[in-house]
Amino acid sequence: MPMLEITLNARLRPLDRGDVYEDPLLEELESRSPGSEIVGGGTMMSPEGEPLSCDVAIDLAGDPQAGLALVVDVLQRLGAPRGSTARLDDAGPVVFGATEGVGLYLNGTDLPRQVYADNDINELIGQLTARLGESGELHSYWEGPRETALYFYGPSARRMVELMRDVLDTHPLAQRSRLVNLTDPDAAL
Q1: How far apart are CA 169 and CA 121, in angstroms?
Q2: 62: number of CA atoms within 13 Å, CB side?
Q3: Which CATH number characterizes residue 170's domain?
Q4: What is the rounded distance in angstroms from the CA atom of residue 172 to the CA atom of residue 71?
Q5: Pair (123, 74) in one structural domain
Q6: Which has the closest alpha carbon to 71: 16, 35, 25?
Q7: Under DSSP, is residue 144 helix (H, G, I), strand (E, B) or coil?
Q8: Using one digit for the tens of pLDDT, what is the confidence trace for 3-60?
């Protein structure tokens, strides 16, 4: 069987990778490409354990080019970030992606203790999600030794930042936070 290697330019914990991409992709493969199956997956981590990207390996049944087109189409509809790639056996990569990512890194150590005691990160996430509406959604998170990162994906990183700005400017847990463009780290937000 031809092997299709997918690298998603997405920062996802392994369980989130399954929920966001693998499980819906498997459903599509079962109905539209019987015999094709997901045979592996992984998450590239930084030395600190932060997810950087993730991979999915697929054995394709039938016409390999049709399988490639199907998988890329499904992942695009699921919101795969720009800069994701698909590689069929030894062929060159196909670059795809429909969304942009924003990482919100919350300071977990340098705020007054009372800020952490009096505020709930889930309430902050709720406010951000409500502000984003259809313009973005939280796909995953990471709890590091000094920061907690929230990974949002949507059609436009700049638009997500514009929508989140009033919450970030007023919520106590957002003090000393930083924003990172996940799909294009060199681009300003």
Answers
A1: 15
A2: 14
A3: 3.30.70.1280
A4: 42
A5: no
A6: 25
A7: coil
A8: 999 999 999 999 999 999 999 999 999 999 999 999 999 999 999 999 999 999 999 9
Q: Supply the DSSP symbol for 50.
A: -
Are 54 and 17 in contact by the 8 Å Cβ rule? The answer is yes
pLDDT of residue 26: 96
The residues pairing with 53 across neighbouring beta strands, listed in sequence order, are 44
Based on the fold, state whether residues 75 and 122 are members of the same structural domain: no
DSSP 56: E
Q: What is the C-alpha to C-alpha distance for residues 129 and 114, in angstroms, rounded to an integer?
A: 24
Residue 93's pLDDT band, with cuts at 50, 70 and 90, is: very high
Residue 22: give the domain boundaries.
Answer: 3-96
Q: Which of 96, 114, 130 is the last residue of a domain?
A: 96
| pTM score above 0.85 | yes
Token output for 77: 């509809």
Instruction: Map tokens 């997901």 to a residue.
Output: 38
Q: Please identify, among 96, 131, 159, the residue that sits at the C-terminal boundary of a domain.
A: 96
